[in-house]
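Supplementary Methods, section 5.1.

A reviewer requested that the exact input to the structure prediction be made available. We therefore reproduce it here, unchanged from the version used in the analyses.
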Amino acid sequence: MSVTIKMIAEKCGVSRGTVDRVLNHRGRVSQETIRKVNAVVEELGYQPNTIGRALALHKKELKIGIILCSLGNEFYDEMIEGIWAARKENHNYDVEILMRCMKGYDVEEQLSLMDELKRQVQCLILNAIDDFAIVQKIDEYMDDGIGVFTINTDVTGSRRMFHVGVDVMECGRIACGLISMFCRERGRVLIVTGSLSLLEHRNRIMGFCTAMDSRYPGIKLAEIIETQDDDEEAYRGMKEFLGRNKEIQAVFVSAGGSVSVCQALKEAGMEHTWVVVCDMIPAVKKLMEEKRIQAAIVQQPWQQGYRALDLAVHYLIEGSFETNFTIENEIKLFENM
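The structure derived from this sequence is encoded token-by-token as follows.
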């Protein structure tokens, strides 16, 4: 006779709902209960009926919420294409995507969108802002049995289920290594980032500075400019910086704003400054052809979108998930773009 959740619950002295939460890693359950349930699962040799679960879900609509900080940022266009490609590939299931897009990194707006979707979805893919209020809201979702997965940007200290993105510390180290080669290991570097409220943006800079301090002592950090991934803000920030300081040899654009950065450099007569960026949008390709951007460290946004949705669907079908799915950083020069 096959082992059932009811049998596990009776042996543990807990409800079937508690066993289900432990097996599917959702909701609030004490560590003692988790250990007890897992011990009985191993003792009885329980095997989840994933086939039966999948067949049942054929008749049930899967509602997946997605919140992206994508408005005005071309980087996310490919990510969204990847999301829809994964939905198409999972056509055997009735997957409904409830996507909400916001501009910039306003915590209150993201909280409002999370509140809006909370009663409508079974899981949420979140392009997260690293703020304590967002962490609390993620944990609220988890307490209510709604899985939360972060994409591209992660948060610290939450109980989110998995994260899909690149190794941003590695990205920063790669950028420092490239700039060091271009500058022959000596020069002042300006870093242009999106927002220090994002864990990924901070860690990318940390990776750069770690490599700079440990391997490239001749490379010095001039300043860090925040742009909120807004082209106009990037242009204003660059104009203001270059108006008082032109003694830089390179720029690392660690988020959006590459086109505006290059425009400001050209207007200042500094179009031959070494520039390394993180996103490969069509305008960046053109600037690489013009030799105004020397390298791009590509985050593969299509892969991020595809993997996040595909993992979310399989979580709803099978009740299993990965803690992280790391996408490879990819270096693009003019010769291989």
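The first strand starts at residue 62 and ends at 68. These observations are discussed further in the main text.
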